[in-house]
Amino acid sequence: MAGVVLGMVDEQIRFRAILTLIWNGSSTACIVVLDRTSHRLHTANLGDSGFLVVRGGEVVHRSDEQQHYFNTPFQLSIAPPEAEGVVLSDR
């Protein structure tokens, strides 16, 4: 039993350590969820990632690209401290 408890404690310590890590980087994102009960499509899109809705071989909807200007998409990001003031933002 003591081994099981210690294993759980070790796992919790590792989990908390992972939560405190901060990784520098950025990403665009596209999340699409189909609610099978209501037959509704829910979407969240950021940047130049995107999605198409196709019915009967026809494109009936296309997400809009979101970018500051060509080849500079909106992104979710954590910039390194030394990049403060250099990072592109809308505000």
TrEMBL record:
Catalytic activities: O-phospho-L-threonyl-[protein] + H2O = L-threonyl-[protein] + phosphate; O-phospho-L-seryl-[protein] + H2O = L-seryl-[protein] + phosphate
Swiss-Prot/TrEMBL keywords: Hydrolase, Magnesium, Manganese, Metal-binding, Protein phosphatase
Enzymatic class: hydrolase
Gene Ontology cellular-component annotations: mitochondrion
EC id: 3.1.3.16
Gene3D superfamilies listed in its UniProt record: PPM-type phosphatase domain (3.60.40.10)
Domain of life: Eukaryota
UniProt domain PPM-type phosphatase: residue ranges: 1-91
Residue spans crossing the bilayer: none
One MF term in the entry's GO annotations: protein serine/threonine phosphatase activity
Keyword set includes Hydrolase: yes
Family: Belongs to the PP2C family.
Name of the protein in question: Protein phosphatase
Organism of this sequence: Limosa lapponica baueri
